[in-house]
Specification:
Strand order of the largest sheet: 5-4-3-2-1-12
Largest sheet: 6 strands, mixed
Structural class: alpha/beta
Number of strands: 12
Radius of gyration: 28 Å
Helix content: 40-55%
Number of helices: 18
Low-confidence stretches: none
Order of helices and strands: HHHHHHHHHHEHEHEEEHHEEHEHEEEEHH
Length: about 525
């Protein structure tokens, strides 16, 4: 231990150790998918933070750890954004600086059982507030929320149906705090062990009492994935390939055909020939086709990404314009200040336009669908809103072809499992180049993924479920609980500080004594 402490005495070595420790949780996400690691991955970082010699150093260690976490989570952006990836990681990493101070405040030295017990509640709440802040679309959105790494763990998916991915994140951090205390503060093993038991009890209770989706029907949904198409005229050649794959679905009794994001590169009103070809495909397959148009609109200024439903007679009029755009990829925040990003990477040369409201579409055959576009599947509030407004199937149309050889396609596809479990509605994740995936209303995988090397169409038997999950009914209540916990802690700290600063009352003056040793009496 003395050798480690001596090695960490160097500020740069300590900062490097913090960045590496902060990056460790990323291994719980796809592609590595070491989901069990998530429950101890924060332990090295917490141990480093509690050993910080000063509060200022803990702030630095929190920042460096957050930088490592953000850089590792978004490392696949490096070939496109280059040095700007480090800038983004540094800016977002600063959110963890106060959390680093908070860890030291509770766990430094030899914390009492009371401090450890409080840490098991306050530290997860602080982490949750960080995730809430960075989930704002303008800061990059909720990509890599800690609980998302548990997308294939059935008990965690059950937790998601009750409190969303937020509840999973809270419990994962609580387990890490308890494990860190058991390793570094052995005299405080009782509250730490109690925290682990409480987490197990909560998970078991949710497993037993949370409502299961009630399957009441099934529909057949086809996903068309054309694969990687490059070179001159790729928009036309992609459409040709999608047309060919869709035609192969004729006679397979499908209820809906879904194409990926940017599957059509032209406005359908401006290029009616494409609309006629899509209508012919709808007649051949006997199903409506949900396409995604990435083009400059003929009726409005600017470029939109729009989910458009096409039937036997052409576009049905059902249209959803993407609302939450990818920073730098589809628009540049504060372009007047950060527009230089276009000179160092593949940032958006022109900002896409935003839609104004979500849409639930009647897809035919009595099926109501809720479309989202790409990045939007990371936002749990969007899928919750669609389910609350009657969507029976959630659909995300995506394209991650720019990051084909990275961890991004697998990680993006995994998010749909959480959205399905949260809402109790099946979700279809359809992409241009993989990974495409379909999940049932409990978040369970249906069929096999369509990987990044596949060009095909595939039909999925999708179960429909009724009822409303607690998460859809009550929303982000774990976040509100975390806010209340942090507010209560701040109030208690304020009261404690006031008590410490209040001067002690002066002792009463002793009465003067006479020469004979008797107290002097008034009037004498």
């Amino acid at each position: 231990m003395k050798t480690i402490s001596h090695w960490l005495a160097s500020p740069w070595r300590r900062s490097t150790a913090a960045a590496l420790a902060g990056a460790l949780p990323v291994l719980a996400f796809p592609e590595p998918s070491l989901w069990g690691l998530a429950y101890v991955a924060l332990v090295p970082w917490i141990a480093l933070l509690r050993s910080a010699p000063t509060g200022k150093r803990a702030l630095h260690d929190g920042w460096w750890g957050g930088f490592g976490f953000m850089l590792a989570m978004h490392h696949w952006l490096l070939p496109n954004l280059h040095v700007f990836t480090f800038v983004i990681a540094a800016l977002l990493g600063a959110l963890w600086a106060p959390w680093g101070w908070l860890v030291r405040r509770f766990l430094a030295g030899r914390p009492s059982a009371g401090r450890v017990a409080a840490a098991l509640v306050v530290l997860p709440s602080g982490w949750l507030l960080i995730e809430l802040i960075r989930s704002w679309q303008g800061l990059g959105g909720p990509w890599g929320v800690l609980g998302s790494g548990q997308w294939e763990v059935e008990p965690a998916l059950r937790l998601a149906s009750v409190g969303g991915v937020w509840l999973i994140s809270f419990l994962v951090v609580a387990v890490n705090v308890a494990a860190a205390v058991l390793v570094t503060v052995r005299r405080a093993w009782v509250p730490a062990a109690s925290g682990l038991v409480a987490t197990a009890v909560v998970t078991s209770a949710v497993w037993v009492w949370s409502p299961r989706p009630d399957i009441d029907d099934r529909v057949r949904i086809a996903v068309v994935q054309p694969g990687v198409i490059q070179g001159v005229g790729k928009a036309d050649r992609r459409f040709d390939r999608e047309e060919q794959l869709t035609r192969e679905l004729a006679g397979q009794d499908v209820d809906l055909v879904v194409w990926g994001e940017s599957s059509v590169g032209y406005d359908l009103d401006d290029r009616p020939g494409f609309a006629r070809r899509l209508a012919a495909l709808s007649r051949e397959t006997g199903a409506n086709i949900l396409v995604n148009v990435d083009a400059r609109r003929s009726d409005k200024p600017g470029i939109y990404k729009s989910s458009i439903l096409v039937g036997p007679d052409g576009p049905t009029g059902a249209r959803y314009d993407k609302m939450r755009l990818v920073p730098f990829g589809e628009y540049i925040p504060f372009r007047s200040l950060l527009g230089w990003a276009t000179s160092v990477g593949e940032a958006a040369a022109e900002d896409r336009r935003r839609g104004t409201q979500q849409v639930v579409m009647d897809a035919g055959h009595g099926l109501r669908i809720g479309p989202m576009v790409c990045f939007e599947s990371a936002f749990s509030d969007m899928s919750r809103n669609l389910a609350d407004h009657g969507a029976e199937v959630l659909i995300a149309q995506s394209a991650t072809s720019t990051f084909q050889q990275s961890w991004a396609p697998e990680q993006h596809a995994s998010l749909a499992a959480l959205r399905a479990a949260e809402t109790g509605r099946p979700m279809v994740h359809a992409t241009l180049t993989g990974v495409s995936a379909v999940y049932g209303p409990s978040g369970q995988r249906i069929g096999s993924w369509l990987g990044t090397s596949v060009s095909t169409s595939s039909v999925y038997e999708v179960p429909l479920a009724g009822g409303t999950t607690p998460y859809v009914r009550f929303g982000e209540w774990p976040v509100y609980a975390a806010l209340l916990i942090m507010a209560a802690w701040c109030v208690s700290e304020g009261v404690r500080t006031l008590r410490l600063r209040r001067p002690a009352p002066e002792p009463p003056a002793r009465p003067a004594r006479t020469a004979h040793g008797s107290p002097a009496r008034p009037g004498r």
